[in-house]
Amino acid sequence: MAFLKMGLRSKAVTALVLVLLIILLPSSLIAWQVFQQVHKDLAVNYAENLAELNHYKIRAPVDRELILSQQLARASVTRSWFANEQDSQKAEDFFIEAREYLQSFHEHTYFVIHADSRNYYFNEANKSESKAPSYQLSENNPDDSWFFNTMASDAKYSINVNPDQQLGTTKVWFNVPVFAENEKKGLIGTGLDLTRFIHDLLQNQETGVTTLAVDTGGYIQAHPDESLIAYGSGAGIDNKGKQLFDLVSKVDKEVVQSLLSEDTRNGIHLADVMVNRIPHLIVVAFIPELNWYVTSMINLDVAEVVSDEWWYAILSGVVAVILLIIAALSIAVQRMLINPLIKLQSSANALARGHYNVNLPDNTTDEIGDLSRAFSQMVKTIQSHTNDLESKVSERTRLLENSNREIALMNKMVNDSIDYARLIQQAILPDLTIRRSLSGHCFVFWQPRDTVGGDFYVYHQEGSQHLLGVVDCAGHGVPGALMTMLARAALDHAIRENGLGSPAKLLQKMDDVLRGMLLDLDLPRGLATNMDAVLVVMDTQKQEVRFSGAKLSLYAWDGISLTEYKSAKRALVGRKKHHFEDTILEDCQGQNFYLTTDGLLDQPGGEHGYGLRFMDLEAAIRMANRQRLDQQESAIREFFQSWKTDSHKQRDDVCIIGFSMPTGQS
C-alpha cells in the first residue's frame, strides 16, 4: 500500500533497482568468460599488426632508395654518359641531374661505376662535388669482387652489406645496372647507414614486447641487448648462445626452427612459446632484400594488447545491458507512468492541430497533475510566440524574395557578358581562313575548358609562305581570354615588322612587345603572365617547314612513327629572356604535322588517371591517320573524350592544329 502512495519518480527508481539486481549478476559471469576468449584473439591480432609495422619500418626506406636508384639509372643523361664516358658535356649533364637525386637520397650519397674504365665515382652532400673517379676497381682486389659478381648476374638489381676499405664506410648498398646501347655499361646506386636500420627497428619498444632481427640461420642481427647480437655471424665467427633458438625453452626450439624455414618466407607467421617459463607469442616476417626475419616476442601477461576496439566491445556490451534494463523498465513504467499520461493525449493532439484554446486536466495530486498545469501554461506561451514568429517569417520571406530577384538579374548579366566574350574570341580565330587556304590539308580542334579560354591558334599567308601556330596563355576563363588579346596583338605587330620569314624572330619580337606591355602594368605579385607558343612557316615553293617554339613541340607523322621536334625550354615573358632559333625541315612532302598546347598532354585520364605519354599521343595520331587530314578533327575529339572519361573533368584549354604540305602550290 505504501508503494502505491509513492510519487511517479519513486516508483520508477524502485522498479529500476529491482531489474538491475536481476540482470547484473548473470551478466557479470557471462562477461568474464567472454573476456578470457577475446583477450587471446586480441593478442593474435596485436602480434600480426606489430609484425606488419616492424616489417614496414625496414622495408619502406629500402624500397624508397631502390626506386630512386633505378630512376637515376634509367635517366637519359645517365645512359648517354655511360655510352661515352669521355664526353665532357654528357658528363656535365649527368652530374647536374645527379645533384637533384643527391638531395633525395636518404644518406645524400651516390656512386657510379663504369664497367669499361672501372672508374668509381662517389659524391655526398656535405662535401664538394667530385667529377673525377675516387679510384679504379680491380679484379685482383677481394673488396671489389661484389662489383664483378653483380655485373655477371642477370638480376635487375642487388642489395648487399659491403665494407669499403678505400672510402672507410660500411653501408647497405643498392646496386642498379645501367644499360646503354643495349649493353650493361656499369652500376649506379646509393647506400644506407646500417645503424639506421637497427635504430628504426628497435625504437619505441612497448611494454612486454621485444623486437629483434635474425638471419636465416637464426643468428640475432639486432636486439635491444647488444650482448646477444651475433656480430660477424656471416664470416663464420663463433656466436654460441646468440641464436633465436637459445631464447626459448628446449621444447619450443623445433617450433622456432619451423618459423625460420623457407616455407614461411611469405606472409606473417606466429606461434606460442615459453621464454623464461613465461608464455609468449612469437611472430616473424621475412624481408627478402636483407635476408632477415623481423621477429617480435610478446609477453601475453604484460603487453597491452587491449586496443580501442576492445573498449568499444565493452561499451557495446554495456549498451546491450542498458537496453535490457530499459526494456524491463518499460514494462513497469507502462502501468505506473504511461497509463496516467494517456489522459493528456487528447489535449496534446488538439494542441498539435493548432487549437490553443484547450483545457488540460489538473485534478491529480502527483507529478502528472503538476505536468498538466505546466502544460496549460506552456500552451499560452506558445500561442503568443507563434503569432510573433509568423509575422517575422512573413517579413523575412518578402526580403529574401527581393534579394533572390536581384541576384538572378546580376547572374544573367555576368553570363551574358561571358557569352559575348566567347563570340569576340571566336571572331578573331582564323577558322574560315585556314580551312579555305589549306583546304584538305589541315584541321583545327579548339576546346576551351570554360566558356572562354587562354589557348588560341593563328594563321597568316604571304605568297607561298603559310604561318601556323598555337599559343597557350597562362590562366583559364576570362583572365586567360584577356591574355590572348595581348598575345594576338603582339604577334600581329611582330608580323608587320618581320614578315613570315623566321618564326624565331616572330617569337623574339612577341616576347619584347609583351614585356613592354606588361612592364607598365601594376600587376599583383605572383600573377602568371607567361605563355607557351610554337610557330611554323610552311613554304610550299621550297617544300620546307621552318619552326621555332617556346616550351611547345612540333610533331611529324611519316606514316609509320611519330617524331617530336622539341623547342626552347623557356616560355615567353618568362623570368629570363631567351634567344629563339629556327629549325628547318626539308623534303616534307607526304608528312603530316601537328601542333598542340599542353592541355591535351597534361589531361588526366586513361586507366591510371595520368597525363598522356608520348606513346599514347603516337597511338592517337596513328588512329587519326586512318582518315584524311581534314577529317581528323573528329578522331582527335573522340580520342580526347575517351581518354579523360567521365571520371576526370577537362583540366586545361585544348588547341590542336594538324597540317600537311600542299602539292602544286606556290
From TrEMBL:
<dbReference type="Pfam" id="PF00672">
    <property type="entry name" value="HAMP"/>
</dbReference>
<dbReference type="Pfam" id="PF07228">
    <property type="entry name" value="SpoIIE"/>
</dbReference>
<dbReference type="InterPro" id="IPR003660">
    <property type="entry name" value="HAMP_dom"/>
</dbReference>
<dbReference type="GO" id="GO:0007165">
    <property type="term" value="P:signal transduction"/>
</dbReference>
<dbReference type="InterPro" id="IPR052016">
    <property type="entry name" value="Bact_Sigma-Reg"/>
</dbReference>
<keyword id="KW-0812">Transmembrane</keyword>
<feature type="domain" description="HAMP">
    <location>
        <begin position="335"/>
        <end position="387"/>
    </location>
</feature>
<keyword id="KW-1133">Transmembrane helix</keyword>
<dbReference type="GO" id="GO:0016020">
    <property type="term" value="C:membrane"/>
</dbReference>
<dbReference type="GO" id="GO:0016791">
    <property type="term" value="F:phosphatase activity"/>
</dbReference>
<feature type="transmembrane region" description="Helical">
    <location>
        <begin position="310"/>
        <end position="333"/>
    </location>
</feature>
<dbReference type="InterPro" id="IPR036457">
    <property type="entry name" value="PPM-type-like_dom_sf"/>
</dbReference>
<dbReference type="InterPro" id="IPR001932">
    <property type="entry name" value="PPM-type_phosphatase-like_dom"/>
</dbReference>
<keyword id="KW-0472">Membrane</keyword>
<keyword id="KW-0378">Hydrolase</keyword>
<protein>
    <submittedName>
        <fullName>Putative phosphatase, sigma factor-like</fullName>
    </submittedName>
</protein>
